[in-house]
Amino acid sequence: MGCCTGRCTLIFICTLQLMGKLRPDSVFQDPTIWNSVNFVLAALERQVFDFLGYQWAPILANFLHIIIVILGLFGTIQYRPRYIVVYAVWTAIWVTWNIFIICFYLEVGGLSKNSELLTFNISQHQSWWSENGPGCVRKEAPAAGIAGLDSQSYVSVIGCTLEYRYIEVMHSSFQILVALVGFVYACYVVSVFTEEEDSCLHK
């Protein structure tokens, strides 16, 4: 019973990291897995907003995260402890990455949110939330002396109820919370699986 509970919880956490709303009867019939899986969730949502903001470093990190979470989900469903160990190691890396993102947007340790670090110095884009956050009004003013179809304009954003860096910090904080819970349950499920393997070998 404990194994099923821990395993089901880890499946829920992996699903929480990947998907949005799912119907309980769409994939599995086990109600213990799907009782709580009606959340709007993290990795795919974050990937979309990073794509909209041309944030290339987070896009690559999110892509790796999605692959490893799928691997962890597969390992949990198929009783493969090695895959779950890979997932557990990745969650530690993922927590570190999200701490870096928080420090980046809060400008801790000499980091600047206005640098082009997250775009690999390819473009001068910022977070999508910087112009499209809650309450933000975007105003464009054409640049003086430049005419033509491809002329550039200055963009000013006013009236934001929440500054975009705090939205990014909340995203990363949520990712850290889910990853820490995932790490704990991954360790628990691996220990249960190895105990079962050991007990089967001694019989």
TrEMBL record:
Q: What is its main location?
A: membrane
Localization in the cell: Cell membrane
GO cellular component entries: plasma membrane
Q: Does the keyword Cell inner membrane apply?
A: no
Assigned keywords, A-Z: Cell membrane, Membrane, Transmembrane, Transmembrane helix
Its placement in the membrane is given as: Multi-pass membrane protein
Q: Output this protein's name.
A: Sodium/potassium-transporting ATPase subunit beta-1-interacting protein
Source organism = Phascolarctos cinereus
Instruction: Kindly list the organism's lineage.
Output: Eukaryota, Metazoa, Chordata, Craniata, Vertebrata
